[in-house]
Amino acid sequence: MKKIYAEELKNHYGEKIEFSGFVDNIRDLQWVQFVILRDSTGKVQVTIEKSEEKNKEMVELISNLALDSTVKVYGTLMESPKVKLNGMEIIPDTIEVTSTSALELPFNYKDLEGVNLDTRLDYRFIDLRNDKNQLMFKIQSDLVKYMREYLYNNDFTEIHTPKLIGAASESGSEVFEIKYFDRAAYLAQSPQFYKQMAMASGMSKIFEVAPCFRAENSNTNRHATEYTSFDVEFSYIDSYEDVMNLEAEMLEYGLSKLKEKYNDTIKEVFNEELVVPKLPFPTMTLSEVYKELEERYNYKIAEEEKNDLTTEAEKLCYKLAKEKYNHEFLFVTDYPAEKRAFYHMRDNEGKLQGYDLIWKGVEITTGAQREHRYNEIVKNAKEKGLEKDVEFYLEFFKYGCPPHGGFAIGVDRLTMLLLNIPSVKETQFLFRGPNRINP
Fold this sequence. Notes:
alpha+beta, CATH 2.40.50.140, BirA Bifunctional Protein, domain 2, five-stranded mixed β-barrel, 12 helices, 31% helix, elongated
């Protein structure tokens, strides 16, 4: 018999069905037992009349069953308007217990208020039973699906690059080194080198959704040592503005589709308004941002600190974007080249051809036109003291490579901002940070 999920039950009124799920609640009254079962798509009521002799065994079984055990019910699905839960009930013929739960859970996952986050993460498999958490991951999954959909609609190819690499892809200080047979290897900080290899190979539009690893000893609400990155790279661009435009269009498409499906649900469950951003996204240079922040909010920092956005400046960018442009997103450009990776292109005056994208006061993307000219990228790598470490990568550009650019978005951070979740620790299926490697 085909597995029927809760969301499909309405198509089976009057039929004999088999339904499996967790025991979510039991109401054991004088004449009747109500058992609420749940699966990943919803809940249904099972009604057992105690007065019927044939139900005696089931009544006894339910009377001694702990919540969060799992059962398989065989019976008739009835449309019952008097039943508050979706107007239906299953009248069972048999109930089979498929697993039993301990009588006392580590915490009440239905009410996480006041439950220590570390305790929740220790028992993440229990924490994830919470309805809100289940919904969060459905929304995250659909957002990634819609962004993928936009890229597929625009003839991008999804690739899968190695996560074991022979050289650090960003800087040697933020990599996890591992023993690889008789030599050292690293966990990939990003697929950057291989995305660009794809450009050199003639694959002109690619993307990847995959884990990345950063050996940063950061204990903030938005950093993790392993996270899911949504990476995009494409060729034959004229400037980094082409990259910005594509990212803006992809986000507008994804959020628009998400709003169609989840707008009321997000408002009800997360108390958050999903705003679909208008195109084009506003853009300011780094110096313009600091000038406005000082004039509007009296935010002043030393000149030598203005070569990047401080955390506080990022936060104020949300207020600035809302007041100046009535927009939640803000592109910031014209960063000094010394603050960025050697593979970012610079113009004839040495100005970086890249950007950051700030959403709700948090940086979600660093994007750029990449350096594709062999002599220039060799020179940049040498400036950073990396030419020996990245010799294999520099080879990609020896035999012709088109102008190209790209960006990456952290899926966990994107979800955190979308649903106003306090930390990426909650938006990752299993969080990895400096002090957490289990479960």
